[in-house]
Amino acid sequence: MSENLTEKDTNRIEALSDGVFGVAITLLAIELSVPDLKHVDNKSLFLALINNWPQYLTILNSFAAVILMWISHHAMFKLVRRASTPFMLANGLLLLFVTLTIFSTKILSYYLLTPAATMAAAFYAVLCVMVCSSFCLLWHVALKDKDLLMQHIPEKVIAIQSRSYRAGVVIYILATALAFVNPWITVGICTASWIYWMVSFKKLDVRV
Fold first, then answer.
1. Domains of the chain: total
2. What DSSP state is assigned to residue 80?
3. Cα angle at 35 between 30 and 37, to 5 degrees?
4. Which residues form the domain of 129?
5. Residue 197 and residue 195: Cα distance in Å, rounded?
6. Is 137 among the domain residues?
7. Comparing C-alpha atoms, which of 136, 98, 134, 104 is closest to residue 121?
8. Which of the ends of the chain has fewer CB neighbours closer than 10 A, N or C?
9. Which pLDDT score, from 0 to 100, does residue 186 have?
């Protein structure tokens, strides 16, 4: 009997990955801290909530980033029909850096308004570099072993996917370097990158 070249055999790896992305999003929400007030009244609570804006900003940034990572992961797996051991190991590396996003978010939110803001922003951007590099590695493994991919994928789709991952690495390396000029530039780049990824994902809305 001939092998079904369109049959999916990645259910377990996708289920594990979805679980990790879900846990990462949940942990980001848990990172929101309740203000510790010395004098409990409406004004003090209001000011404490307002003054906690760096935490809201960084968690919002990271929440959007994790959602976009998940969408990107889903887009890739539309094109993948089976997994090999190298592919699973590369996927595991990606999930490691996804979970570390929570740690980098906490560092940035805690130190953004301190003299250590430069290092905090650089560290956050470096984690973004590692995530994008992991996507590049995962995609490279899939391309190297064409038996892992669905049949008849348009070359244009493969090119867009490859270009998108490489561009992410370049964007976040730039963001890392610019943290030493001004950490707010890094934060701005990480926030603005949402637009780039959403446009990229629209181009990758393939149905196979």
1. 1
2. B
3. 155
4. 11-203
5. 6
6. yes
7. 104
8. N
9. 95
